[in-house]
Amino acid sequence: MEVTVTINGDSHSHDVEPRTLLVHYIRDVVGLTGTNIGCDTSSCGACTIHVNGESVKSCTMLAVQADGQDLLTIEGLADGDVLHPMQESFRQCHALQCGYCTPGMVMAAVSLLDENPDPTEREVRIGLEGNLCRCTGYHNIVKAVLHCAEASS
Amino acid sequence: MIPAAFDYIRAGSAEEALAALAEHGDEAKLLAGGHSLLPLMKLRLATPAVLVDIGRLDDLSYINDAGDHLAIGALTRHRDVETSALVQSQAGLLAEATSHVGDPQVRHRGTIGGSIAHGDPASDLPSVMLAMRATLVARGPGGEREIAVDDFFTGFLETSLGDDELLTEIRVPKMPDATWGFQKFNRRAQDWAIVGVSAIVSNGSAGVGLVNMDSTPVRAAGVEAALAGGASASDAAEAAAEGTNPPSDLNAGPEYREHLARVLTRRALEAAGR
User: Fold this and answer.
1) What are the Cα distances from residue B57, in Å, to B20, B33, B119?
2) How many angstroms away from the CA of A20 is the closest CA of chain B?
3) CA of B43: which chain A residue's CA is closest?
4) What is the pTM of this model?
5) In degrees to the nearest 10, what's the CA dihedral of B100, A51, B172, B192?
6) Are A90 and A66 within one domain?
């Protein structure tokens, strides 16, 4: 089935099997491998991208469901060489260790601040409940999100 | 993990969805947000031959004040229910419980109708439907019919919806003055409830629904009866597990779940001011 999506501002059209998961489409067909596959069971959030501006787990969505939608992946966040404020905050606060969860964490965190620009620490922790860090580096991740919120206000 | 192959039909209207169901019968499954169905398909626990995608039927995504009840379109996403001022003021229990479904990413995609039609005893929202005595509206070839929530959940992942029917609307009584409590016990923030309880008290009468205490979502009828007879929260909560048949899994055995049901019911009733 023909699928046309906008990813990071660029239009892509491909003929895909209906059972193709969106994350496989993004990684294997379009070739954007910044979005990771972690648990593959919609638990860990490593595959989080934005669909029409909202965080979504791309392992639990079919590519055909995304037809005609506007997608944003981690590759589309920075402005050229200038990191997105959330990426910059993660860097400054040492909010990554092995880095595997980081693309999904950053995408979830950006969506979180879009919905709640000035969250409490508790709201950040609850807002990131859909993302697991296997290094258990949550403390600095939460710090980075709060730092980004503060820097943006 | 990749689902087994299926034919994909994108419905442009409820009528098109019903026509596809009529043609393919029990070979077909409806796909709304996909956050109950797709995980099962990836594990090949569900292998529908035909997937009818109703995710774009925007006319079934709404929250309306319909006089004595709220009319919520089946395709309304959890995020929209959770943040609706109307739901928060008229059905606070539903708004609160919805905010505990999955995680933000799941709530951006999952729908109230999909969650209820899935009929999972471990889901949060069926317990709210039972506690608030909601009415489900289904559309089929013969027109529309209303189903009382007590007649809706018929077996494990089974409901009284026919193979040729589409859940279109959830009707929740407006209870602006109600007090309520929602309790969900799990080990990780985003997990299914090991046991959960929805309790609401309005005009002196109580509704209590249980999560994950039987093969279907169930009402804590013994608790409701005890409260109607004037029992205190802690006395009434002793009846929480009566008549249930809790599942046993990696997280908990039946006895532990029965204990949780009593404790969580007491807490939910206390939060509801009983």
Assistant:
1) 14, 11, 21
2) 7
3) A41
4) 0.96
5) -30
6) no
Same domain membership, residue A71 and residue A8: yes
- DSSP structure class, residue A119: -
Domain boundary among A45, A76, A107: A76
- What amino acid occupies position A93? C
* Tally of domains within chain A: 2
Torsions phi, psi for B81 (to 5 deg): -70, -45
Residue B184 CB neighbours (<10 A): 21
Predicted confidence (pLDDT) per residue in B170-222, tens digit: 999 999 999 999 999 998 888 899 999 999 999 889 999 999 999 999 999 99
B50 contact A CB<8A: no
Is residue B148 within a helix (H) or strand (E), and if so which, with residue range? strand B143-148
Is there a contact between B109 and A56 if contact means CB atoms under 8 Å apart?
yes
Give the CATH number of the domain where residue A62 resides.
3.10.20.30
Give the ipTM of the model, two decimals please: 0.97
Backbone angles phi, psi at B229, to 5 degrees: -85, 5
Could you tell me the residue range of the domain that residue A31 belongs to?
A: 2-76
